[in-house]
Design brief:
This is Hydrogenase expression/formation protein. The protein is of the alpha/beta class. It has five helices and five strands. The chain has helices spanning 15-22, 34-38, 57-71, 85-90, 119-130; strands at 27-29, 43-48, 75-81, 100-105, 108-114. The longest helix is centred in the middle third of the chain and has 15 residues, at 57-71. It is globular.
Length: 147
């Protein structure tokens, strides 16, 4: 009896990812294009995802984020950051769980939703985030010890 080994998911070529970027208007950004994306006017949603072979929630997030953007007409700009750029840039926002959705307005940080939520909880949390005044993002929290 042969055991079929599951195929690895290639995020860049997966039909759901392609739909998100080609049909739903999510720009794929990286470390080089990140700053330019932040300079866009209006409310922006940035989806940080990890390797779907390591973190299965990635595939859920690439379905949920376009639906969220569609339901929130205020979101003007949408982007997705994939590994390895997502790991590098995530330190800016200090979220602790993956995947994460970061919200900025005119480049200024409003808040983030890290991990997955029930739809009603997600919508309520995003509604609260997008009404906030800009603030500094939380850091990743490095403990300081006395000298």
């Amino acid at each position: 009896m042969l055991i079929e080994v599951p195929k690895k998911i290639d995020l860049q070529t997966h039909p759901i990812f392609k739909k998100m970027t080609e049909e739903c208007g999510f720009e794929q950004i990286d470390s080089d294009s990140f700053e330019a994306f932040l300079k866009k006017d209006g409310l922006s949603l940035i989806l940080f995802v990890d390797d779907p072979n390591r973190m299965k929630e990635t595939m859920d997030a690439i379905v949920i984020a376009p639906e969220l953007a569609k339901s929130c007409q205020l979101i003007k700009n949408k982007a997705v950051i994939c590994p390895p750029h997502a790991r590098k840039l995530s330190a800016i926002y200090g979220f602790k769980r993956w995947p994460a959705m970061v919200f900025v307005r005119d480049g200024a940080y409003l808040g983030a939703v890290d991990g997955l939520r029930l739809w009603s909880q997600l919508v309520a949390e995003v509604d609260e985030i997008i009404q906030r005044s800009p603030s500094f993002p939380p850091s990743i929290g490095i403990p300081v010890k006395s000298c």
